[in-house]
Amino acid sequence: MSASIVNRYRYPFLFLTIIVFVAVWWVVAKIVNDPYALAGPVSTAKAYYQLFAQSSLRNLFITSIESTLLSIFLGFVLAVAIGIPVGIFMGRYLVVDYLVDPWINIWYSIPAIAFVPLVMNWAGLTSISALIVSFLIAVFSIIINVYTGVKNVSASLVEPAIAFGISKRALYTKVILPASTPNIMVGLRLGITRAIEGVIVAEMVFSVVGLGGMIFDTADKLEMSLTIALVIVISLISIALNYLMKYLDHKVVFWKESSALKRE
Amino acid sequence: MKKSLRVMALEQKTVSTFKQILKIEGISKSFVKDGKKVQVLEDVSFEVREGSFVSIIGPSGCGKTTLLRIIDGLVKPDSGKVLFNGELVTSPPPKMGFVFQQFGLLPWRTVRKNVEFGLELRGVNPEERKKIAERYIKLVGLEGFENHYPHELSGGMQQRVGLARALAIDPDVLLMDEPFASVDMQTRELLQRELLKIVKGALPKTTLFVTHNIDEAIYLSDEIVLMTARPGKVYEIIKVDLPQERWKEDIRAHPEFIRLRQKIWKFLESQIIEKEMGENESGKA
Amino acid sequence: MERRNLVAQEVIVEQRESWIDLNTIQAKVIFTIVSILLFGAIWELAAKLINNHVILPTPISSFKALYLLIQNKIPPGAAGVGSFESMLLQTLEITAIGFLLSSAVGIPIGYLIGRWRAAEAIIDPWINALYAIPMVALIPLLYFGSGSLIPVSVFDYQGDLLPDVLVSFIMAVFTIIINTYQGVRLVSNSLVEVGKAFGASENQLTRHVVIPAALPDIVAGMRLGLGRALLGAIIAEALLSTNGLGYAMLAFQSILNTPYMVATIMVIAFIGFVLLQTPKLIERRLFKWKETERIKRGGNE
């Protein structure tokens, strides 16, 4: 099958793969034949109906989504609001760099979940805690990327500016900052993913709040069809948010075809 | 300070009505690479008269790019000095324009905003900037592209923007660092011709041009500074005795052109061979 | 020519003459030490201000707890947390097995879908989706599901390590697949063309062109996968298991012994730091040629 054929009919093909996926799922569920281990697409669909029909469940569902989304949004916004300036200052002032750098590397390499108990002690089993965790996890990723962007601005942009007689300050505002926007956008894309993960991890540990909590709770009670239904919901939310960031990336960095996003 | 006989002869021939706008004296520069000191330039001296087009040509790695940057004050030499209009150059002088090989356009700015860049830094007000920029955009033949972005333009067009940007600040001297090296051959010849029509016609400018393309150097210049392989020294300064307004005929077939080309090629060839043999070239001065 | 590879900072540094040469290693070392001391001081101050050793223990009590922890002196009431060695070993074991499994599975899969150029238009959206989905959300599904699936006897054998390993595996495998996929896909077409022009078979192409070219990305994926495997192990232990560092961390928290909790976190942080940084150093040595390209492409992990 040549690439051109696939390309032309890519949406139908994509749809086909989804159908294939669901079919395989159905078959595997039938084989496993244990509703406590794996729920099939049919029971999952029923679970969706439950989520919208049963008022108690629906309320819980809606509250959970609200809580999770709020935590993600606020945690991420905070991470961006703090991460970008810190990254820039680190790039600009070597003193700041040397002082802050060791900590960035250390905090960044701590597995997300290790933050949870600490934050739990501070803000309890609430969505605020989830927010804080999400902030902590996202902010270092953003700082690192912003810093890399600022420090790695190509000389072919800086030299002309200096040749035309630019002050240090103007160099930063007119050249280095705009030139590091691709990296900043990558940082944001990575940041949103981490923010989402942070929130879900925290919520799962708490198990009483948010979608993560609901997922953990239903799985614990072996209500697998509900669990899968909820996992699909958070997946779709996450995919949507990622897509939003990707779109933002292309809009802001309009001069590049793609700010490559490859890693974690 | 040893000077070649040629240089001394040239100096004596210099008519005092032509102002000496640039004087490069005894420039030496070394870098440290992998812990070893590399002497890139050694005791380079020459002069540029007002209104002339001077090319600097030499084998790769002879430091000509570094030399240009030293002249513009972007790099500090180890010893020696550069005098621009009689004053010592320590940082990029406002009246020197520079055109870069990689264009160096700010990708998030339109063509016009890029051309305005130097004016912006000099505090020219927005209306004035716009008018000036548009004038120079027209001069380099990009009228109609003011609101395009660099990534929408071809390499040749981008370099025209670079040229407009450098000219817009009304420099006394135009420095060009292998400006057409990143462009394909046909576009290159086109740009050469258009450059001449500007700096030797519509808007006369003293130009210092670095290249490793022999034809380009001969076609464009009044004088050619030949540099040796690393450490770069001035080997000879050749006067190009070809008619002005060279864009009007097929100058590349001119016998003098061919003679010069052979001469320079012979020199470069010897330099490259010697460099590859790893011997230390002592410039024949 | 020599200047072309310079980065902005080097250009600017040449312009500037500062009164302290901050670019030396000595300066960096001094500042690192100052930074650590500063952090310790702030921590101490905050702890004293809050004056509640459950919420924020002082640095000293935390380090004391760390010291005791390593010597196996577990506080009473820490329900069945086991010895320090056992918890450390379990975490490392799960991480290691999860990582090895995910590499063994992830790299071949990533390679195959990376090579299948024709299907790129279909595969790409799935990869993007895979990348976006928070794998942690799958964990309860996996754990409880597998708990039902796998016979109890197997559970007992490994001291119920298997579900934990599964979690660690899932967390790591997708990262490895995605990075391998990207690495393989981005092998420059011209390189492959050169191989084909010299009559290389598919096998030879794979061995001599594609894999070496994709190797930096594959290795980077493995490095990230290692971190993810650790994350998975800790999460599995914290949520679902009864021993290991993750479990211990929460156990200490539940008896409100925060100094010990912080100590455990420090151990985890240390492991995380080592697992992340050591491969980076090795990578930098091995793959000098890819370094500039990576900066160009963006995306620092």
UniProtKB/TrEMBL annotation, chain A:
GO cellular component: plasma membrane
Coiled-coil ranges (or none): none
InterPro entries documented for this protein: MetI-like, MetI-like_sf
Transmembrane annotation, as ranges: 12-32, 69-91, 103-122, 128-147, 195-216, 222-244
Domain ABC transmembrane type-1 stretches: 65-245
Compartments in which it is found: Cell membrane
Main location: membrane
Database matches in PANTHER family: ABC TRANSPORTER PERMEASE PROTEIN MJ0413-RELATED (PTHR30151:SF0), ALKANE SULFONATE ABC TRANSPORTER-RELATED, MEMBRANE SUBUNIT (PTHR30151)
Descriptive protein name: ABC transmembrane type-1 domain-containing protein
UniProtKB/TrEMBL annotation, chain B:
InterPro entries (UniProt xref): AAA+_ATPase, ABC_transporter-like_ATP-bd, ABC_transporter-like_CS, ABC_transporter_ATP-bind, P-loop_NTPase
Ranges in coiled-coil conformation: none
Domain of life according to the entry: Archaea
Record PROSITE patterns: ABC_TRANSPORTER_1, ABC_TRANSPORTER_2
Molecular functions per Gene Ontology: ATP binding; ATP hydrolysis activity
The entry's keywords: ATP-binding, Nucleotide-binding, Transport
KW ATP-binding (keyword) present: yes
Gene3D superfamilies: P-loop containing nucleotide triphosphate hydrolases
Residues in ABC transporter domain copies: 22-256
Protein name, UniProt field: Nitrate ABC transporter ATP-binding protein
Organism lineage string: Archaea, Candidatus Marsarchaeota, Candidatus Marsarchaeota group 1
TrEMBL record, chain C:
Membrane topology: Multi-pass membrane protein
InterPro entries for this protein: MetI-like, MetI-like_sf
Any single GO CC term annotated in Swiss-Prot or TrEMBL for this entry: plasma membrane
Residue ranges constituting the ABC transmembrane type-1 domain according to the UniProt record: 88-277
Residue intervals passing through the bilayer: 25-43, 94-114, 126-145, 165-181, 229-252, 258-276
Keyword set, alphabetical order: Cell membrane, Membrane, Transmembrane, Transmembrane helix, Transport
GO terms, biological process: transmembrane transport
Cross-referenced Pfam families: BPD_transp_1
Compartment(s) of residence: Cell membrane
Membership in a protein family: Belongs to the binding-protein-dependent transport system permease family.
Protein name: ABC transmembrane type-1 domain-containing protein
Organism: Candidatus Marsarchaeota G1 archaeon OSP_D
